[in-house]
Amino acid sequence: MAKNSKEVAKHEEVAEHDYATGLAVITEDKISDPGIEPHRVRMTDKSVKHEKAAARQVALLFAISILGSIFAIWAYYAFPFDDTNASSLRINTLFLGLGISLGLFGIGIGAVHWAKTLMPDAEVSEERHQTRGTEEVRAAALEVIRLADQESGFSRRKLIRRTLYGALALFPIPAIVLFSDLGPNPKDSLRHTMWGAKKNTRLARDPDGTPIKASDVQIGSVFHVIPEGLEKLEAPHMLNEKAKAAVLLVRLDPSEIKNDKEREWGYDGIVAYSKICTHVGCPVALYEQHTHHLLCPCHQSTFDLAEDCKVVFGPATRPLPQLKIEVDAEGYLVAPGDFAEPVGPSFWERKA
Amino acid sequence: MSNAVTSKKKGGFLAGTANYLDERVGIAGIVKEFGRKIFPDHWSFMLGEVALYSFLVLLLSGTFLTFFFNPTMAETTYDGVFGPLKGAHMSSAYASTLDISFEVRGGLLMRQVHHWSALLFVAAAGLHMLRVFFTGAFRKPREINWVVGFMLFVLGMAGGFTGYSLPDDLLSGNGLRIIDGMLKGLPWIGSYTSSLLFGGEFPGNQIVPRLYSLHIMIVPALILVFLVVHLFMVVIHKHTHYSGPGKKDTNVVGYPLMPVYVAKAGGFFFIVFGVIMLTAAFVTINPVWNYGSYDPSPVSAGTQPDWYIGFLDGALRLAPTGIETVVNGATVSWNILLPMIVGVGLLGVVAVYPFIEGWITGDKREHHVLDRPRNAPTRTAIGAAGVTFYAVLWAGAGTDLIATNFKMSLNQVLTTMQILLFVAPVAAYFVTKRLCLSLQRKDREIVLHGHESGRIVRLPHGEYVEVHEQADVYQIWKLTDFKEYAPTLARPNANGVITIRARIRSALSKMFFEDRVSPVSKTELEAAKHHAELH
To answer: Quick one: which of B136, B252, B393, B512 could link to B371 by a disulfide (CB 3.0–4.6 Å)?
Structure first.
């Protein structure tokens, strides 16, 4: 009792602190608080029969959990993987997961049921103390800080303090510099693709790398193209080069091409465009034949193939870069050189 | 010492253990201090618990996966049991993901448990934030804990994204390609930043091990730190409670930690775990074997990120055509910067909202009784507008699926979304505010005139009236216990100047509190009772 009254006293003392009420409307005319509602007695509180039934239910739920866990262990061995039976994986996953779930649900629902039916459900009130310390505590804390300052001379010794600030400001910088080797300076790597590595690289099918003859390309057909020899590159370079050099090859009726440059850089209606979206670099892989539109499935930028792949819809701004193509002596499609501009997403120094 | 010996004799094994621990770690003091701490009860307080428990499930299932996953991009030829990919060249990361799925018993189950609990973690954290927002639980003294919780939400998204990219399948590779494109669009440092992240050109062979470090070490460690701070502050502040009879800013009404909350919350962990396990056992998620290993050339139609990245992807899609500009030879990718600004800006407003509202109300008192959302109409309306804005961005990430499933024009769906992004939040704001005010008026009606009883009575002079039943004192208290705020005028300061700050605060306070419904006062209630008795 004595301790209780002391706590109340402490609380009142803190409450004396004058907190600004701001725009809150303070009223004396407030309806009074009736206090916590009287406890409603549960069936399990007043009937031994119900109490016993609830206890049995809780025990039953825990027992189900035990059985579930045993079932899970059994299922792990009882349903082995069978390479010849595709559903064995599904059955193993299903029964193992079902057993573990039962093991978990039994404990969980049992414990909650126990709490709700058999543990006391009368609401209890506990005093809250304001987060702010009491005046004495705050004064004592200030005194600690003051003493520490006095003993170390932190405020007094300006030179020490300022050099310490300088040292603390600089010491993390080597750690930042250390991360520079995470990646090289990109230099002009974004400006070149494998098409410029040598003259007259043949256009090859993605992914098998067989070269394409102009006569193979029918009007309306689409080829996913890589530079010949790309598939033979070593692991990271192969994907790095492919991420820049992937091309889409389409043959249009030459009369449908509305752009002179496009016609000139193509061959008899066959045109090749970078497949890497000029928005954020997804492959522009969907071609709609009757509208000549290329659609990027990531963010729906749409390019008009009949008009030099200019953007007709979506967040991209620039047209897809065209790859100039010719036909060599054997009738294969070749690229005399690289794209005239960087492919793929924009970057700050792109135009420089 | 003699006491310890006797207590050991009296009790059995448990008492002995308790004594052993107390003499070494002082557990008696901890139990005495926290054992009977009171926690209030409400279903909406479970949302944060769901997030906490799904994080624990993430740790458990993730640890299992680390034992089998091989986080390198070294090229290998697949020689596992999944027929369609036999002989394919792929990274070891992808191959080991296939092995976990097809050759480790329970491996697929654990992958699915991990993925489902990640989705649930972010969802539960988001809903928990909405609960905290709409009930005003972020008010003093909990503003800092709001920011800590916000960090947890952002870290949850970061954890999800870094994990999503690890299997190195076609879908996650395209996700990384988008990150690469967005990084390249940053002013000045774009191409360098991309090179630093990918260790050179995209995709390179560095990104998976790097994301792995982030995913299994840095992000979970940060989440743990913030989680500990978050819960520690809950203990310091004690949990808020909803307004109700006997519930005040100076007390906390509920049930004791031991035994009730140990059983309820402890049991609830198992229920959450069970729900995740059951979902994982029955519902396939992220079937990476269907997508194939990453290749920069193919992509499938209808690609979608995990749900919580949707709003950022939607922002990218909703950017208007042709807004990239070239200034002095420098390419400024507004089609990337604008969505980034929108996404980061939305999160930024969420992070600082408690400080904005605190500044407007100027209320420096501690608040431990929660607001019913209707009793803070403008806050609720702002929240509804924010949720609507987020929802439109999120739906924006599905424009292609909406168009194909409902046989609509993709262009029209996208244009509609672009318009809705501006119109819908404004509409949501006004509709919500009016709804809140109407609900408050209805509450006043119930307090003053009681409930309609459905009984029609004929008075002696022939008039028919419906008898209203007086609400009980507890309900009256619940409906009248809220804080009223009044707008302020822009007042001159000590130098006689009306500062811009004062003008802004005055304007905002007007927006917040000009339209308001006051709680029924004692005088009004008595007058109403008196009036009723006259009848």
So the answer is: B136
B-facing residues of A in 189-218 (CB < 8 A) are 189-190, 206-207
- What is the least distance, in Å, from the CA of A352 to any CA of chain B? 6
pLDDT at A6 over 50: no
Determine the pLDDT at residue A245.
96
User: How many angstroms separate the CA of residue B285 from the nearest CA in chain A?
Assistant: 13
Shortest Cα distance from B459 to chain A (angstroms)? 32
Is some CB atom of chain A closer than 8 A to the CB atom of B271? yes
Given B264, B299, B334, the domain boundary residue is B299
pLDDT (tens digit, 9 = 90+) per residue, A282-291? 999 889 988 9
B20/B72 same-domain check: no
In a domain, B309, yes or no: no
Do B170 and B298 contact (CB within 8 A), yes or no? yes
Last residue of a domain, one of B250, B273, B299: B299
Q: What is the pLDDT of residues B64-105, one digit of tens each?
A: 999 999 999 999 999 999 989 999 999 999 999 999 999 999
B370 lies in a domain? no
Q: Are residues B78 and B181 in the same domain?
A: yes
pLDDT band at residue B9 under the 50/70/90 scheme: low
What pLDDT is stored for residue B529 in this prediction? 86
> CA–CA separation, B334 vs B329, rounded Å?
15
ipTM value, please give it: 0.92
CA distances from B490 to A238, B76, B240, B359, B516 (A): 66, 71, 33, 14, 19
Report CA torsion sign: B377, B380, B382, B387.
Answer: negative
Query: B184: closest CA among A277, A314, A246?
Result: A277
pLDDT at A94: 96
Query: Touching check for B17 and chain A: CB below 8 Å?
Result: no
Strand extents, DSSP E, B219-377 = 241-242, 251-256, 325-327, 330-332, 369-370
Contacts of A193 in chain B (CB under 8 A): none
Tokens representing A146 are 């003051």
Same structural domain, B11 and B138: no
Mean pLDDT of A128-139: 92
Residue B300 has pLDDT above 80, yes or no: no
- A20·B364 Cβ contact <8 A: yes
Question: Average pLDDT of chain A?
Answer: 92
Q: What is the pLDDT of residues A114-128, one digit of tens each?
A: 999 999 999 999 999
- Cβ neighbours of B197 in A, within 8 Å: 182-183
Structural domain harbouring B492: 447-534
Per-residue DSSP letters for B14-54?
HHHHHHHHHHHH-HHHHHHHHTT-EE---GGGHHHHHHHHH
Q: Three-state SS for B332?
A: strand
B110 and B248, same domain (yes or no): yes
- Do B71 and B154 share a domain, yes or no? yes
Domain CATH for B182: 1.20.810.10
B117 and B8, same structural domain?
no
**Parallel/antiparallel/unpaired status of strands B89-91 and B325-327:** unpaired
Q: Concatenate the DSSP letters of all residues of A42-55 into one string.
A: PHHHH-HHHHHHHH
Q: Is residue B350 part of a domain?
A: no
Q: What total of structural domains would you count in chain B?
A: 3
A101 touches chain B (CB under 8 A): yes
Percentage of chain A beyond pLDDT 90 is 83
Partnered with residue A293 across adjacent β-strands are: A288, A304
Within a domain: B335: no
Q: Assess whether B100 and B191 both reside in one domain.
A: yes
* Bridging pattern class, strands B369-370 and B241-242: parallel
Rounded mean pLDDT of B177-199?
A: 95
Residues in B 421-460 with any Cβ partner in A closer than 8 A: none
Q: What is the mean pLDDT of chain B?
A: 94
Q: What is the pLDDT of residues B407-430, one digit of tens each?
A: 999 999 999 999 999 999 999 999
